[in-house]
Write a structure and sequence with these properties.
Layout (H helix, E strand, L loop, with lengths): L4 H15 L3 H10 L5 H4 L9 E3 L6 E3 L3 H24 L4 H22 L3 H19 L5 H29 L6 H9 L6 H16 L8 H7 L2 H9 L4 H9 L8 H22 L5 H25 L4 H28 L6 H19 L5 H14 L5 H27 L11 H22 L2 H7 L2 H28 L13 H36 L3 H38 L1
Antiparallel strand pairs: 1-2
Length: about 575
Amino acid sequence: MNSPALLICAGGPLLLAGCMLLPSLRGMARLLAPWAALPALLAVPLSMPGLDVGWFLLGAQLGVDHIARVMLPVTAGLWLVAGLFASRHLPSGRRADRFYGWFLAVMSGNLLLLVALDVATFYVGFALMSVASYGLVVHEDNARARHAGRYYMVMVVIGEICVITALMLLVDRAELDFASIRAVFMERGAGNNDLVIGLLLAGFGIKAGVFGLHFWLPLAHPVAPAPASAVLSGAMIKAGLVAWLRLLPIGEMALPGWGVALAVLGLFTASYAVVVGLPQREAKTVLAYSSVSQMGLMSMVVGLGLAFPGHWGALYTALLLYMAHHGLAKGALFLGAGLVQHRLGPVTARLTALALVFLSLGIAGGPWTSGLLAKTALKQATTALPGPWDALLPPLLNACCVLTALLLLRFLWLAWPRASAQPEAGGAALVAPWLLLIAGWVAGPALLADVHLWHKAMGLAYAWDAVLLMALAGLLAVAAAWLRRRHRSPAWPAVPPGDLGIPLERLGAGGLHWLAAFCAERLPRELGRLRAFGVAMADRRAGLAILAGAAEARIAAWSVTGLLVMLMAGATAWLLGG
């Protein structure tokens, strides 16, 4: 049965964003904007039917598949709380209206890609979300925000080129639904599989923040307002994972080369982000690196699914549980980082501190949290893998828990709320939706887990193991602080946010500087030759001599250029013909 309900869920926020541009409708849109995600939040509980939109693109199909059944309530709930939080966190005025315009457009793209059942609609949602997010990153309109925005847009463009190239190569041999796309990889004799998989992993890996493509995240998250950071890290960063799950033949065919490479890269990302994040001096930057680390673990699971399709069932269940847990917890932590920027009363400050500790324990896999539930499911799934993965991964995951706990201790040190003698009015309006999101984080992942997993994770044995890991992280933090004070050693030198992106930027700037200097040197010379050529052309005989000399001097250069053009044309023909 067709129903416009899902179209309203995904397109309603975009319609409200358009209303923000019209002065006559702006007041109404301003009132409805914080609640724009509510219909999407109700889509799964109300079992909204799918929709076939024949007039949109090549015939869009909307519906709630297994991934959307889990991630749509999580994503919509986070967008709803972030919108309500923003209504009190941001000062009213034109800047707030501009924020909500971008916020609604990004929300529409994020929700559309979740309910899309065909690749064209998915790409429209993904592109809308990616491009419109630029407005959230540069909202503060200062030099730092514009710098982060430039990084973000460069990575978005690179990602879009990779994604659209891969999708064009796939759609050339398939229908537009995801099952047909995945079937292309299993066709005997289907060429370009490695090229397409590489493009998909790179293009969506930018959004997922895997190592080497991650450096925009620690730049963009700290400069965006707290509600934008919450949805950037809690919801939108999962879009790359959703794309991999829908487009790649995970669990359907073995791709050990790509799978092992992605799994190892994910593990390296998880540890690298902690090492670089620990010396950071800003709470939201630490949280951004924590997101990179956690996404590394989730990327590892996707890689294991590519390498070992027979074990994908348990890995897939653990991954969805982990995605739901991380989305809600990390969104709540970013909102908490925004909450502590306000003047809080003593009671509110103590309540905020307690909630931040609880959320941090959950991200690290502390006892009796949904984080322990997700990591228990992941450990169970990995112990069934063939060697040496079954022996290596459990201790590595325990080490990741300790490293994550250290990183979150750093965050708590930087973001610890302090009571104010003159608290702001309306603080309860900020805290209420935040606590509601925390309640959803506590209950949501628990509802997704089966009874056996829930009892095992909440039992004394697993809780005791988690206590020991958290205690080890605490001892390491205390020992590091004591050694530093005892020996008066300097602080750990902080890597600038963006780490790998900084030398790349300098390299690019150096290349542009060299090119500008080269042009400044050569251009006057070439202009002088051009003027001489014009004067000489007055004498036909002299002009012919100059033309002959120029042709003889340039023929070698043109031969090289022609060879390069021929090679590019041949490569393009091979790509399109394969």
